[in-house]
Amino acid sequence: AGTTVLDLPATSGTFITTGSSGQSIPKAALPTGSVLQVVQGTTSTGVSNNTSTLADTGLTATITPLFSSSRILVQVCQNGLTKGPGNTGSGVQLQLLRNSTIIAKVQGYGGYTESSSYNWIGGVAGDYLDSPATTSATTYKTQFKNETNATGVGVNQDGSTSTITLLEIAS
Questions:
Q1: Are 143 and 95 in contact (CB under 8 A)?
Q2: What does the pLDDT read at residue 83?
Q3: 3-class DSSP assignment, residue 29
Q4: Staple 125 to which of 44, 77, 79, 136, CB 3.0 to 4.6 Å?
Q5: CA–CA gap between residue 168 and residue 145 (Å, rounded)
Q6: How many angstroms separate the Cα of 101 from the Cα of each of 5, 85, 105, 120?
């Protein structure tokens, strides 16, 4: 009783319109912090990197903000991180990017043990509140590299599923 389902994104100026009833709600009537839309991306395809050059993990999602004043809460859960055997200085670095710009380091030197043995790191998660200031399609993704230009590091290994969730937040 009293519940309205908003079929977003249907906007007109400063109003959000429900798809089923055609009712309009002024954006100003939504409290700051309201979730306007949610987008999620997943991958379970294993990727390895033997270099110190950032490479895509395959984890990506695209959101088109309804309002340029909105903030995007990015929630990353990157699983199946590994450090291959053979180099004592190896470790996984994981970055979060908005389009092609690095906006956060999610993992700095994962799996570093001063040992040349294999290391199953498991997963790493993090949240980042971004202000993209746009209503254009915006892609968020993760990239990773080996801190040393040596033995391989990996993500999404052994069928592990990673997720990236984007929440548009009214501000």
A1: yes
A2: 83
A3: helix
A4: 77
A5: 29
A6: 35, 31, 12, 29
- pLDDT block averages, 10 residues each, the chain of length 171: 44 58 70 92 95 94 95 96 77 93 83 67 92 97 86 90 96 88
Measured CA distances, 2 to 5, 22 (Å) = 10, 16
- Residue 167 identity (one-letter amino acid): L
In the chain, how many H helices and how many E strands?
A: 0, 13
pLDDT of 140 reads 98
Answer yes or no: are the C-beta atoms of 62 and 134 closer than 8 Å: no
Q: Give the angle 16-18-21 at the CA atoms, nearest 5°.
A: 140
Say how many C-beta atoms besides its own lie within 10 A of residue 51's C-beta: 13
Are the CB atoms for 82 and 90 separated by under 8 Å?
A: no
pLDDT of 5: 42
